[in-house]
C-alpha cells in the first residue's frame, strides 16, 4: 500500500487548493472529487492536512511566546548592533519569570471573536432562510445590514446577489458577483503564499468566509444567463405552454412536497408527470419559457434538462451547455448526460462554446469531458487543440478526455501540455495509461 506524504504549504498546488475550498464551502465531497479528478479519500486528506496547517499557523501567530533573545546577541531587526544597544528598550520591561510570556491581545480576544463568529453564522442561516422562503426583500435588507459590519463575508454577498437575481435586479447582482470574483482572486493568491487570509492578521470582528474564484466565476455566469434569459423570453406567450410551466413551478412548493433529496425528487416527478410530458411534446417553443427556470437552484429547475433533451434545436443544446457551467450538482450533471447522448451532433455546439465567453472557459470542463466519450475524429481534433488552452483546468480535463481515445500518437502533445501546466493528476494519469498501451504494443525481442 502506498502512503501519500502529508500535504504542506510548500507542496500544495492551486489544483489541490481549489477543490478543498469548494469542499469547505459545503459542496458534496463526491461531486468535488469527481470534478477535481481525485479520489474522495485524497480530497478529504488534503482538506484535513490544510485545516491542520491553518490551525498551527494561527496558533503560532496568535499564541506563541516571543523567542528569548540574549542581551549580547545580534538584534533581530538586522541592524548589526547588539540587542541591548538596539531594540531591547523598545520592547519594554519583561513581565514574569524567564520563559513566560504575557498573553497577547490577540490571544485574549480570541474567545470573544469565536463567540461573535458563532453569532454571525446563526445570522447568516436566518438570512438564508428568508431567501429560501422567497422573502427576497427581507433577505436583501438583512444581508446588506450585516455586510456593513462584515464586508468580506462571501456567504452574505452570495445571499445578496442571489436575492437580487430573484427580485429581478439583474445588473446589481451581476455587479456583486464581478467584484467578489476580483476579491477572490486576490485572496487566493495571498492564501497560497501565506497559508491564511488577510483578515487573520488584522483586527476584524470575525474571520470572513471566502469563496474560491471558480465559485464566483460560476455565479457571475449564472447572473449573466439569468439576465439574458429574462431579456430573451418569448414575447408572444403561448397560453398552453405558460399553463404547463406554471404547473411545473409547483415543484418548488415546500408545503406540498418534502425537501428530502431523493424522495422529494421522486414524489415531484410522479405528481408532475402530466405537465412534464406536455412540455416534452409541446414543441421547441417551450425552450424560451423554460430557460428562466434553468438558472434557479430549485426543484422545478431539476426537470429542465430532461425536457430540453427531447428538442434537438440549437437553443436547447446551447441551454444545456449553459446549465452544465452553473455547477449545480444535479442539473449540471444531467445536462452533460443529455449532451453526451446527442453524440457527434453536439461537437459543433461545443466548439462554438469555446469560441465565445472565453473568460468562462475554466468552468467549461464538463463539456470537455463529454468530448472524451464521443469517439470521432472531430472530437479528437478539438481536444488536441484544447491542450494549448491557457487555463490549466481546461488542459487537465482535455488531457484526461483525450486519453480515452487510446491513441498513442497523442502522447507527445499530452506530455508537452502536462509540462506546461506543471503536471496535473488527470492528464498525467491519462499519459501513464497511454504509455502502458505503447509498452504493451512493443513485441518482445
From TrEMBL:
Signal peptide: none annotated. Residues 103-116 have a biased composition (Polar residues). SUPFAM superfamilies: ARM repeat, Sec-C motif, TPR-like. Transmembrane segments: none annotated. Residues 93-116 are annotated as: Disordered. Gene3D superfamilies: 3.10.450.50, Leucine-rich Repeat Variant, Tetratricopeptide repeat domain. This is Zinc chelation protein SecC.
Amino acid at each position: 500500500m502506498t502512503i501519500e506524504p502529508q500535504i504542506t504549504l510548500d507542496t500544495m498546488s492551486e489544483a489541490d487548493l481549489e477543490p478543498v475550498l469548494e469542499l469547505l464551502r459545503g459542496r458534496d465531497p463526491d461531486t468535488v472529487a469527481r470534478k477535481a479528478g481525485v479520489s474522495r479519500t485524497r480530497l478529504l486528506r488534503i482538506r484535513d492536512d490544510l485545516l491542520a496547517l491553518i490551525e498551527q499557523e494561527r496558533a503560532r501567530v496568535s499564541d506563541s511566546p516571543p523567542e528569548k533573545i540574549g542581551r549580547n546577541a545580534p538584534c533581530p531587526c538586522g541592524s548589526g548592533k547588539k540587542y541591548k544597544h538596539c531594540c531591547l528598550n523598545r520592547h519594554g520591561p519583561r513581565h514574569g519569570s524567564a520563559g513566560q510570556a504575557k498573553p497577547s491581545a490577540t490571544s485574549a480576544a480570541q474567545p470573544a471573536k469565536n463567540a461573535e463568529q458563532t453569532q454571525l453564522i446563526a445570522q447568516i442561516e436566518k438570512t438564508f432562510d428568508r431567501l429560501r422562503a422567497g422573502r427576497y426583500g427581507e433577505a436583501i435588507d438583512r444581508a446588506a445590514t450585516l455586510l456593513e459590519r462584515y464586508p468580506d463575508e462571501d456567504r452574505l454577498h452570495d445571499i445578496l446577489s442571489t436575492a437580487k437575481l430573484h427580485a429581478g435586479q439583474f445588473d446589481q447582482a451581476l455587479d456583486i458577483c464581478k467584484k467578489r470574483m476580483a476579491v477572490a482572486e486576490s485572496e487566493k493568491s495571498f492564501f497560497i503564499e501565506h497559508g491564511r487570509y488577510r483578515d487573520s492578521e488584522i483586527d476584524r470582528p470575525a474571520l470572513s468566509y471566502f469563496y474560491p474564484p471558480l465559485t464566483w466565476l460560476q455565479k457571475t455566469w449564472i447572473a449573466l444567463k439569468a439576465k439574458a434569459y429574462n431579456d430573451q423570453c418569448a414575447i408572444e406567450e403561448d397560453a398552453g405552454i405558460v399553463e404547463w410551466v406554471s404547473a411545473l413551478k409547483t415543484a418548488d412548493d415546500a408545503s406540498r412536497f418534502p425537501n428530502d433529496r431523493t424522495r422529494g425528487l421522486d414524489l415531484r416527478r410522479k405528481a408532475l408527470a402530466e405537465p412534464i410530458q406536455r412540455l416534452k411534446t409541446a414543441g421547441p417553443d417551450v425552450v424560451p419559457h423554460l430557460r428562466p427556470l434553468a438558472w434557479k437552484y430549485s426543484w422545478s429547475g431539476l426537470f429542465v434538462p430532461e425536457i430540453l433533451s427531447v428538442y434537438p434545436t440549437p437553443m436547447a443544446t446551447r441551454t444545456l451547455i449553459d446549465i452544465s457551467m452553473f455547477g449545480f450538482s444535479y442539473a449540471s450533471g444531467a445536462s452533460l448526460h443529455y449532451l453526451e447522448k446527442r453524440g457527434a451532433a453536439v461537437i459543433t455546439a461545443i466548439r462554438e462554446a469555446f469560441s465565445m465567453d472565453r473568460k468562462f472557459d475554466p468552468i467549461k470542463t464538463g463539456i470537455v469531458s463529454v468530448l472524451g466519450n464521443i469517439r470521432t475524429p472531430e472530437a479528437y481534433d478539438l481536444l488536441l487543440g484544447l491542450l494549448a488552452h491557457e487555463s490549466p483546468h481546461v488542459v487537465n480535463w482535455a488531457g484526461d478526455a483525450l486519453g480515452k481515445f487510446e491513441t498513442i500518437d497523442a502522447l507527445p502533445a499530452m506530455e508537452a501540455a502536462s509540462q506546461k501546466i506543471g503536471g496535473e493528476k488527470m492528464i498525467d494519469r491519462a499519459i501513464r495509461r497511454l504509455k502502458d498501451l505503447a509498452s504493451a504494443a512493443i513485441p518482445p525481442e
